[in-house]
Fold:
Amino acid sequence: MADWIPIALSRDVPVGITRAVIVDTREVMIWRGEDGVAQVWEDRCPHRGMRLSLGFVRGNALNCLYHGWQYGAGANCLRIPAHPDLTVPPTIRANAFAAAETGGMVWMSDDSAAPPPQLPALTPVISLAIEVAPERVLAELGGSTAEPLIELPFAADTLQIGWHRVHAAKTMLHATGAGADIGAATAHLRALRQNLEQGVAA
Amino acid sequence: MPKLYDYVLSGSCYKVRLLLNMLGIAYETQAVDFFPGREHKRPEFLALNPLGQLPVFEDAGLVLRDAQAILCHLASSYDASGQWLPRDVRFGSVMMWLSFAGGELMAISGARMIAMLNYPGDLATLQAKARTALRLLDDHLADRAQAGGLWIVGATPTIADIASFPYVALSHDAGIGHEDYPAINLWQRQVRKLPGFVGMPGVPGYF
Ligand code: FES
Structure:
């Protein structure tokens, strides 16, 4: 897997929310507590495997929906409601990925050795799922599967579009722009989505 | 007292329970053994609703079927503010999305019955229809958000939101997550924060 992968627009993960994402067939989730820091974890509770994206955020902690195990920003389990007096062993942890935010997107990495890219702040446009293989989407938009961003000229602007592979036949785009007319850029990208999907169906 | 013929696992009955709670209306329920009893196909129930579908709502001699129609009745009779079914330029849009909630979005219900209750049917076809409907709603909500709006129609929640929420929230039961739908993910959280919100099995009551 490439070093750093953009998986969502920061705008779509405000404080207090969970967001499920499929990244190269893996179930991943993003959440953001009151400290404002985006966390990217495997979407699986270490207790019984419940999807953590179905849980809820309180303060700076994520609570699993199933039995209420509570995890802090460092991914360690803070509290097990069935055993309120227990000091939770530090080995009980959610599986956290390295996470970063830059260019208006949330990024994840399997390996935090390489620093995340440094991008200027851009205006979020739209995230779109396209039921077409990434290779084909990138060929159409003039990008490369070796690069996490696509530069797409649109009107007087250049859209910076992060992308991630959902699975072999689905791609998710996360588009941002400098001074773009957001409505027009969104309509343009939806038209591209339709063309690509019709091309696959044809 | 108004009476809801109810099945606890029904997303359509849940539409009605949601608005009853949000409007603070006292009501009684009569449980209908939809599964496995198929009580909704028995003569006594067919006398109330010849379509043999839930929910049915009785109110002061009126007998109503169809969740969307019942939402209209509740808003019309009990919501003095007029917020839930606005009688202005928003009216047609609310009706349009109500139709969508009782129409295209119900593909999720069909897929869920196959996935959960082993009902006969083509799961893949219904899931594809459900995804088409969810994408349409997500595109709409993304446009609304870009214009600064949180709700399906206008600046306040309406019965269009209430009618759409249950099966969107229950789509997990039909094998469809919300990964592809970031605007739906933001909207459904707003719905859960509304005063009087209640959950149902599969939809937690808090968020
Ligand atoms: S599965 Fe998460 S707390 Fe039990």
